[in-house]
Specification:
By secondary structure, the protein is mainly alpha-helical. The chain contains six helices and no strands. Helix 2 crosses helix 3 and helix 3 packs across helix 6.
Length: about 120
């Protein structure tokens, strides 16, 4: 079953005025590194969502973070290996490699996810 995602546009601008085109979970799902692994990536997203919901209830809401921002942090720090991906296929490694290379064309799919993460981290 597909994971539910946030309602369609328009999205509220983030505190730094960037307006995302998708919910954070939807942005994460679009970053699956292997087309054959979509089901495993969705499984990973469901586990991240569960963890993020707990974290939002525990501390995220008190810090003023939205559920999307907490999801971004949880997804960024998630270990993708239990879902059958390599360490290098995680969002953390892929995003950091792109930021180091400053490869803007390859960065485009990561843009919404990155802005949620940046907003969450202040």
């Amino acid at each position: 079953d597909p994971l539910p995602v946030a309602p369609p546009m328009p999205f509220e601008p983030l505190p730094d005025c960037y307006t995302p085109c998708s919910a954070c979970k939807e942005a994460f799902l679009s970053l699956c590194p292997d087309p054959a692994g979509v089901a495993r990536w969705r499984h990973l997203a469901a586990a991240i969502e569960y963890k993020a919901d707990e974290a939002h209830d525990d501390v995220g809401a008190a810090r003023g973070q939205t559920p999307d921002e907490v999801f971004a942090i949880a997804a960024y720090t998630a270990d993708a290996r239990p879902a059958g991906f390599t360490e290098g296929e995680s969002v953390y490694f892929r995003l950091n490699a792109l930021l180091r290379k400053r490869d803007m064309a390859s960065f485009e799919p990561f843009k919404d996810f990155y802005w949620y993460l940046r907003s969450a981290l202040g």
